[in-house]
Amino acid sequence: MANQYVDIETLKFLLYKVQGLQDVLDQERYADYDRESVDLLLNSVKDFSDKELFPYFKEMDEKPAHFKDGEIVVHPQVTKYMKAGGEMGLIAGSFPYENGGMQLPAMVAHSSAFIQDAANNHMPGYIGLTVGAAELITHFANEALNDTYVPNMLTGQWGGTMCLTEPQAGSSLSDIVTSATPDGDHYKIHGQKIFISGGDYQGAENIVHLVLARIKGAPAGTKGISLFVVPKNRPTDGGLESNDVTTVADFQKMGQKGYCTTHLFFGDKEDCQGWLVGEANQGLKYMFLMMNGARIGVGRGAAAIATAAYQASLNYANERPQGRQLQSSGKKDANQEQTLIINHPDVRRMLLLQKAVSEGSLSLILLTAKYHDLSIASADADEREKYRLLLEIMTPVVKTYPSEMGKIAVDNGVQVLGGYGFCSDYILQQYLRDIRIFAIYEGTTGIQSQDLLGRKVTMDNGKALQLLSEEIQSSIKAAMAHESLAPYAKKLGGKLALTQEVLQSLMGFAMKGDYQRFLADATPFMEFFSNIVMAWLWLDIAREAQNALVTGSTENSTDFYESKIHTMEFYFKYELPKTTGLAEILMDKQALTLNTDKKVFA
Amino acid sequence: MKILVCISNVPDTTSKINFTDGDTKFDTNGVQFVINPNDEFGLTRAMWFKEKQGATVHVANVGGPTTEPTIRKALAIGADEAIRVNAEPTDGFFVAQQLAEVVKNGGYDLVIAGRESIDYNGGMVPGILATLLDMNFVNTCISLEVDGNNATAMREIDGGKEKISTSLPLVIGGQKGLVEESDLRIPNMRGIMMARKKALNVIEPVDAAKATQDAKFEKPAAKGAVKLVDNVDDLINLLHNEAKAI
Ligand SMILES: Cc1cc2nc3c(=O)[nH]c(=O)nc-3n(C[C@H](O)[C@H](O)[C@H](O)COP(=O)(O)OP(=O)(O)OC[C@H]3O[C@@H](n4cnc5c(N)ncnc54)[C@H](O)[C@@H]3O)c2cc1C
């Protein structure tokens, strides 16, 4: 098993240089950090991941989490990771000082989590969900709930989950039926939740579930959903007592097998107590306010797996001899020694695709995290609003592009290994199985795409889209200053114009009130839009590399910078042109998927 | 007890190593630097003395400003203060003379250096340092206990171990065994934040001469492509005739 799962040099180049962490560290909120401390932190997380995460990656796949005697058995490393993660500060890191946190910028927190995801993607979710659940409490719950739950969560003693999904309510959360009945200072909770990640595991002293439920008599639909803290064990004066939360199953999956996915019953014995978070009927709103971070997290996980898979297949391609290179005569010399497969153009193409997707995705994640930081920490209110809108429009993209293109990248990684790619002795097949979930949970690609086209593109009269295109325009302008980059910058400019055309065509349907037609091709639109966003990000990466070459920076080697420029060129040749075909699809007036009369599946 | 841990700033062993200037100079471009592993074992043992016996722990390094991230790491792990002697560590004689000055001025009871650094593997510093300071010296030290002024140390010797009783002030050349790899500490976030606020005193070097010159470095021969063989006979043949390993 190749042991290089992440490229720290590229991570640091993207973090410090391309996406400019310093802009965030310059904000007063982050005054306690400088590059040296961030560097030290990332190195520590790498050491930690080498020791606590990567060695268990294969084993967690081979010995999946499973249900036994009313409990979920997980790999013993899970509880160790939660405790060690708590001690390291990985859980508390991004919380404000007043909550006992370290006020870490999101850019740094995501970089740290990226390293962990790449080392072993079965594990960081346990911490990620604990962070998400604790964040909901610190943001919206009263002081008593904060005092009771948050400190133990931040140390990793107690885990946390997000309980949204029910058998009849997956993508459609308005159909949630779990009920909450007022009972003194709390509510009685009754219902079931499925697919709950980290929902229960041996060795966890307590699990704090953040549950969406409907208070008796609440309005139908999303307007009647409230949020509750429902612990597995409720704290009493004398310690902890069972809170009637029963684990009935652990879903067996094709990937992420070490990360348990549970089926939970609340109130089987009518003794499950829940405490309302914030105000009644605001549950979904609270949940979605916290979703931006979680969605960056999902995209980050996919980008990390694509990165690890790229490293593993690159390593293999550098060692596997097979076949001979074609000579200029078109012949091969059978007496010649076999060449390494990395010398075959088709293998190089597959490797470059992986590099373009994985490094580009990481840059996307860091950029979105930067918007998140500046939307909180900018001194100026207008700036905060600007970055909030940019964050909003980028959120569905950052969730979806790494998940969708990441799985294609990993698939190419498997292909690089040939037959060995399909065999369990090599790790590529595990990455391929693991990455498949990312386009599904935390809102499927279909749902994210509707969010992008139906809400984000049009929000505030298109303000978010306008701000994003201004950002892209300013990159184009800056790239024009380099003669070698100007043709690419121009190409990207052309794609912006094409985006306008596509949107005008689609908006026509919305104007006519035909929303079904407007959103019918939301997913191809996502593919089109995110492809162009990625071209922008690669142009920025190439510009930074070109600047470094021109100024003779020695922070990274010349080969390193040139490889970034080369990958940008690859992206513009092999990926960006796909938008032309997508635009054709999107502007075609035929509505083939809308017709439910014809027996198309006969 | 006042302890000085001498730390050397060395390239991570996973870094790609290149030389410049006609193979007389190490190319540091893109290389990740870390605390020398032998020193890290010592530092971790020093942290034990701090936590269990109330010792004060300082770290010292001879090096330019670029070594500060490595020194900060030692502070993040838990050292109380750091000293950087602002000079390139040109050879073992030079470094030992600088460190001797730091020890004299700081009044340390115990000086923990590494048996050798993993970059140049000189292995000279602790011995010269003990000589210059006229302190007791235990090299290749694999365990150390201190009780008042008395110290008990264990040394690795060919095929066995040697137990030594000695007294402070003492210099040791430490290595793995002082603590195990699993005892090494990864700085946590709080430690990293606190390290930013701890003193890192930069002092200028004293006059001292270097005693050796680097004439040339040579890298080991490059690794060839992997050869896949179908049977044991072919393997034996290759090992015998090509690799000349058997
Ligand atoms: C491993 C795993 C872990 C999970 N972890 C959690 C967790 O911790 N907490 C939690 O609450 N949930 C969790 N989930 C649930 C997850 O979020 C849902 O599975 C997901 O939102 C999809 O819901 P569904 O499975 O019911 O699919 P469905 O909603 O039935 O979707 C099926 C298909 O129909 C499409 N579709 C559905 N509605 C529409 C529409 N209106 N327009 C267009 N297309 C549509 C979808 O895109 C999808 O392709 C997890 C799921 C898995 C598999």
UniProtKB/TrEMBL annotation, chain A:
<dbReference type="Pfam" id="PF02771">
    <property type="entry name" value="Acyl-CoA_dh_N"/>
</dbReference>
<dbReference type="GO" id="GO:0050660">
    <property type="term" value="F:flavin adenine dinucleotide binding"/>
</dbReference>
<dbReference type="InterPro" id="IPR037069">
    <property type="entry name" value="AcylCoA_DH/ox_N_sf"/>
</dbReference>
<dbReference type="InterPro" id="IPR009100">
    <property type="entry name" value="AcylCoA_DH/oxidase_NM_dom_sf"/>
</dbReference>
<dbReference type="InterPro" id="IPR036250">
    <property type="entry name" value="AcylCo_DH-like_C"/>
</dbReference>
<keyword id="KW-0560">Oxidoreductase</keyword>
<keyword id="KW-0274">FAD</keyword>
<dbReference type="InterPro" id="IPR006091">
    <property type="entry name" value="Acyl-CoA_Oxase/DH_mid-dom"/>
</dbReference>
<comment type="similarity">
    <text>Belongs to the acyl-CoA dehydrogenase family.</text>
</comment>
<dbReference type="InterPro" id="IPR009075">
    <property type="entry name" value="AcylCo_DH/oxidase_C"/>
</dbReference>
<keyword id="KW-0285">Flavoprotein</keyword>
<feature type="domain" description="Acyl-CoA dehydrogenase/oxidase N-terminal">
    <location>
        <begin position="39"/>
        <end position="157"/>
    </location>
</feature>
<feature type="domain" description="Acyl-CoA dehydrogenase/oxidase C-terminal">
    <location>
        <begin position="281"/>
        <end position="450"/>
    </location>
</feature>
<protein>
    <submittedName>
        <fullName>Acyl-CoA dehydrogenase</fullName>
    </submittedName>
</protein>
<dbReference type="Pfam" id="PF12806">
    <property type="entry name" value="Acyl-CoA_dh_C"/>
</dbReference>
<dbReference type="InterPro" id="IPR025878">
    <property type="entry name" value="Acyl-CoA_dh-like_C_dom"/>
</dbReference>
<dbReference type="GO" id="GO:0016627">
    <property type="term" value="F:oxidoreductase activity, acting on the CH-CH group of donors"/>
</dbReference>
<feature type="domain" description="Acyl-CoA oxidase/dehydrogenase middle">
    <location>
        <begin position="162"/>
        <end position="267"/>
    </location>
</feature>
<dbReference type="Pfam" id="PF00441">
    <property type="entry name" value="Acyl-CoA_dh_1"/>
</dbReference>
<feature type="domain" description="Acetyl-CoA dehydrogenase-like C-terminal">
    <location>
        <begin position="470"/>
        <end position="594"/>
    </location>
</feature>
<dbReference type="InterPro" id="IPR013786">
    <property type="entry name" value="AcylCoA_DH/ox_N"/>
</dbReference>
<dbReference type="InterPro" id="IPR052166">
    <property type="entry name" value="Diverse_Acyl-CoA_DH"/>
</dbReference>
TrEMBL record, chain B:
<protein>
    <recommendedName>
        <fullName>Electron transfer flavoprotein subunit beta</fullName>
    </recommendedName>
</protein>
<dbReference type="GO" id="GO:0005829">
    <property type="term" value="C:cytosol"/>
</dbReference>
<keyword id="KW-0249">Electron transport</keyword>
<dbReference type="InterPro" id="IPR033948">
    <property type="entry name" value="ETF_beta_N"/>
</dbReference>
<dbReference type="InterPro" id="IPR012255">
    <property type="entry name" value="ETF_b"/>
</dbReference>
<comment type="similarity">
    <text>Belongs to the ETF beta-subunit/FixA family.</text>
</comment>
<dbReference type="GO" id="GO:0009055">
    <property type="term" value="F:electron transfer activity"/>
</dbReference>
<dbReference type="InterPro" id="IPR014729">
    <property type="entry name" value="Rossmann-like_a/b/a_fold"/>
</dbReference>
<feature type="domain" description="Electron transfer flavoprotein alpha/beta-subunit N-terminal">
    <location>
        <begin position="23"/>
        <end position="212"/>
    </location>
</feature>
<dbReference type="InterPro" id="IPR014730">
    <property type="entry name" value="ETF_a/b_N"/>
</dbReference>
<keyword id="KW-0813">Transport</keyword>
<dbReference type="Pfam" id="PF01012">
    <property type="entry name" value="ETF"/>
</dbReference>
